[in-house]
Amino acid sequence: MKAFLNILNVNAFTAFIFLAGISSYSLAGAALPAPVELQVIDTPNDGGGSLTAIWAPSPADTADAQYQVLLGEAGTDPASLKVIAEFPANARYVKDAKGAWWTRPAERSWHHYVIRNGKGVDLKDGTLYAVTVAMRRGEERVVGPLLQATPSPNWFNWSQVNNLILALGFGALVFYTISHAKRNNIFLRRIPGLDAVDEAIGRATELGKPILYLTGAHDMGDPSTIAAAVILGRVAKRTAAYETELMVPHREPITMAVCQEITKQAYLEAGKPDLFKEDSNFFITSDQFSYTAAVDGIMLRKKPAANFFMGSYFAESLLLTETGASTGAIQIAGTDSDHQLPFFVTTCDYTLIGEELYAASAYLSKEPVQIGTLRGQDMGKAVILSVILIGTLLATVGVATGGSWPQLFLDFFKDLK
Amino acid sequence: MIFLRRRLPLLITMITGLLFAGQYYVPHPSSELLLTSATKWLQIIGGFALVLGITSLFHQHAVKIRRQEAGWGYSFVLYAGVFVTVAAGIFARGKESFEGAMTGFGWVYSFMLVPLQGTMFAILAFFIASAAYRSFRARSREAAVLLVAAVIVMMGRVPLGEYLMPLSGDVSQWILNVLNASVRRAILIGVSLGAIALSLKIIFGVERSYLGGGKE
Amino acid sequence: MTLSERMLKIDRRIIFLVIGLCTLLPLLYPVGLPIKISPEVRSIYDYIESLPERSVFLLSIDFDPASKPELHPQAIALLRHAFRKNLRVVAMTLWVSGTGMADQLLTQVAKEMGKEDGKDYVFLGWSSGGTAVIINMGQDLYKAFPSDYGGKATKGIPVLEGVLSLKDVAYAISLGAGNPGVEAWYVFGKDKYKFELGGGCTGVIAPGLYPLLRSGQINGLIGGLRGAAEYESLVGHKGRAVAGMDAQSATHFAIIVLVAMCNLFYFSLRQQQGRSRELPVKRGH
Fold first, then answer.
1. Cα–Cα distance for residue pair A257/A255, rounded to 1 Å
2. Chain A, 133-192: which have a CB under 8 Å from a chain B CB?
3. Has residue B212 got a pLDDT over 70?
4. DSSP H or E run through B64
5. Within an 8 Å CB–CB cutoff, is residue A339 touching chain C?
6. Is the pTM for the entire model greater than 0.90?
7. Which residue segments constitute the domains of chain A, with CATH numbers given?
8. What is the pLDDT of residues B67-92, one digit of tens each?
9. Has domain C39-238 been given CATH number 3.40.50.620?
10. Complex confidence, ipTM
C-alpha cells in the first residue's frame, strides 16, 4: 500500500512538472518558435511591384505576440533589413484575404501578408529582394529563414477568370440565340409603347404637324444612344412613307452625323429620297440646359404632334416632357436612366423602361438578329435569377452549418480582383 | 469604297473592341499604358468633335439668318454670345479671377451662366408640382400604391414630416433602402445585360446601324 | 363645367404661384425644425473623423451651377470638416462648367478656415476626358494634372508630397449631379485603384445610388439638400442647407395637399359621371 502511494506521489509529482512545463511555455514563454514553412513569392495576378509572404500557423499565435515582416535588397546584411509591417500574431490569415478559392496561395489557416509599394516600400520589378518574417513577444524575438524573391507583373489575372467565363458564356449564349432566331420564329410579347409609335406618327400626319425625336444626352458610345439611333431609323422610314416632317435636335455632333446617315438611308428605303432634308438632324449645343431651353422653344413654336424621348436623360427630362405635355403632344419615352423614369412615367403616354428600349429596335424591325439577342438576354436573366436563388440557399446552409464548401459555388459569382 | 465605308470601320471596331475587352483581364503595366494612351486619344478626338459641332451650329444659324426664318434675330444673339465669351476667355486666359479681381470671363460666368443654369434647374420644382397634380391620381391599384409610397417618402424626407409623423422617416428609409434598392438593382441587371449584348453585337459586326447606310 | 372638372383643369400658373410662395416665405421667416441624421450620411462623417491628420482627401466637385443649391452646401460642409481635421485637401472637377464655381468655393472655405494654398489644399482644376481623367489619375496624378488651376506645377507642391496616384488617396468623395459622377468614380477609380469612396448627389439621383451603398461600393451617401442639411448639423455649422429645409418642408406639404385635392376632385368627378350614366335607366321606370 505504502509502495503504491509512493508511486502515486512520484506520478503526481511528474504530472505537476509536466503541467507546469506546458503552462510555463504559454505563460512565461519558453523559446519562441520561428515562423514555420515560410515562403516568399511574387504576388500573383497583379501588375508587379509586390511580393507575398506565407507561413504556417503556430501554437504561439496569440494576441500578445507579434509578427514582423522584414524587407531589404538581396545581398545586403540581414541585420540591416527594415521592418515594414508589424501585426498581432493571431491576425492576417489567408481566409481573411479577399480572394477566390482557385487563387488561394496556401491553406486558409496559414498566415498571409502582401508587401506592396507605398509608405516606405518601393519594390521595383525585376529586382531581387530578401524577405523574412520574425516573431516577437516583449523583448524576445526570433527571425525566420531569409528568402529571396523578385516582383514581376503578370499577363493574366486569374482572380477574374470567373468574370471572363461568365462574359464568354453570355456572349456565346447571345450568338447561339441569334442563329436560332434565324432558323425559327420566336414569340415577342407586345410592348404597348411601340404599338403607339405608328399611332403617334399617324396622328401627326393627320394634324399636319411635325414629329420631334430626341436621342438623349449621351454620345454614340452609349448603348442607349445606339438603341435610340436604331429606333430613329424605323421612325424615319414611317415618317418618310407618310410624308410627315421630322425634327431631330442633337446634343452631340457625332451622334448627329450618325443619325443623319440613318435618316437618309431610311428615306431611301422608303422610296422617298427627295423628301429627305439635310437639316432634319441638327446640332444645338452640348450644354444640358441650353439644349433643353432650345428644344422647349421648338416645342412651343412648332407644336409637334408627337414627341419621342429615346436614350439617356438627366435633370432635363421633366423640363422637356412637361413642356411637351402642355402643347398636347402624344409623348413616347424610352430610357435606361432609371432615375428619370418617374418623370417619364408621369408625363408621357407610354414609357419603355430600361431594356425595353433595347427590345424596341427588335420589335420594330422583326430582324432575327435583334429578336435572338432579346431571347439571349432573357435567358441570361433566367440564369441570374437561378444563381440568386441557389446562392441564397447555399449561403444560408453555409452559415447554419458553419461549413465553407458553399463558397466553392458562391465565389464563382463574386467580383474578386 | 465599300471597304473604306463598311469593312474598315467594322475591322477597327472588332480589333479595338476585343483588345480593350481583353485589357480588363490583363494587370500588366503595358495593358494599363495602352488604356491610358487610348483615353488620351479619346480626349483629342473629342476636341475635334467639338469643332464639328460648332461648325454645324454656325451653319444652321447662318442659313436661318439668310432665309430670315422666324426668330432669325436670335441667331445673331447666338453669334454675339459665342464671340464675346470666346474673346473674354482668351483675354483672361481662361481664368475667372486674377489676383482676387474678377475678370470679364468670370463676370460672364458668374452673372450670366450661373443664374441662367440655376433658373432652368429651378423650373423643375414648379414642373414637378404641376406634373404631380395632373398625374398622381389613384386610377388603379398600382397607381394608388405609388401614390401612398410617394406621400410617405415626401413626408419622411423633410423635418416637418418627421416632426408630425415620426414613423414616416423610418418607413421612407426602409422604402429607399429595401424596396427602391432592390428594384433599381433589377433594372440595372436588365440594362447591363442589354448593354453587354449590344456591345458584343457591335464588336463582332452583327449590329451595324451606327455606321449609317443600309444592309449589305 | 362642374367644380371638380374646373379644379382638375386648373391653370398650371396657380400651382406655380403656390409653390413659389411655399419656397419663398419659409426662407424669409425660417422655423428651424430638428433634423434627424441618416446612417448613410453619418458613415461619411464617421469615416472622415477616423482619418489621421494630413491624410489625403480628394474631393471631386462634379456639378455645374445648375445643381449648386443642393451640392454647394454639401461641398462647403465637407471642406469645413476636412480642414478642421487638418486633412490634405485635393480638389478637382470633371465638369468644365463647374470649374469657376469650384475654385470660388474652395478659396472661400479655405480662407475662412485659415488654410494655405499649396500647403493645406490644392485645386487641380478641370481636364478634358471625363472618365479618362480618372484612369489617368490612377496611373500618374502628375501626368493627368501637370499643373494646378493657378498654373503652378503640381510636382513639388507640399500638399501632394508622397502622392503619386489615386492609390495614395486615403478617401475620395465625388459630389455628382450626373455623368461623370459617383458611378464613374467607382467603375474607373475605386474598382481599379482600391481607395475608399463616398458619394454626394442631387436628390433625384440619390435613390439610384442606393444599390452601390448597400453593396459597400460606396461607404456613404449624402443625398440632396436633406443630406447637406444633415452634414451641416453633424459638422456643427448650419448653413444654407438647414435654412432650405424649411422651404423644402413647406413645398413637400404643398405638393401632398395638391395631390390629395386632385384625387378628391378626381373621385368626386368619377362619382358624378357614374351617377349621370345611371339616371336615364332610372327615368325609364
1. 5
2. 153-157, 160, 163-164, 167, 170-171, 174-175, 178
3. no
4. helix B29-67
5. yes
6. no
7. 39-149 (2.60.40.10), 158-175+373-413 (no CATH), 186-366 (3.40.50.720)
8. 888 778 988 998 999 999 999 999 98
9. yes
10. 0.77
